[in-house]
Amino acid sequence: MDNQSEKGPILGIIIIIVLLVVGGLFVLNNNLNKAELTPTDIEGAPDSQADSLGLQATSTELDSIEADANATDLSNLDAEINQIEQELQ
Fold this sequence. Notes:
The chain has a domain at about 1-40. Helix content is about 70%, strand content about 0%. It has helices at about 1-30, 40-45, 50-55, 60-70, 80-89. The chain contains 5 helices and no strands.
């Protein structure tokens, strides 16, 4: 009877350890399979705002600079901030 009472707790501990190892492997596998953006992916993404800045005149005349400044749309510079904040939470 002494031998039987010692096997229960040992078996329980072994089962708990096996479950922890399996759970850890599952979490590790899920973290490795996530598609993460690399800096190269971000740099290669099309950016219409940056493209429009390349269309500005190269003149140093005040009227030309003012026309470029008025044509530049800065209203959506922070459009992605909410998305970035959600990803960081």
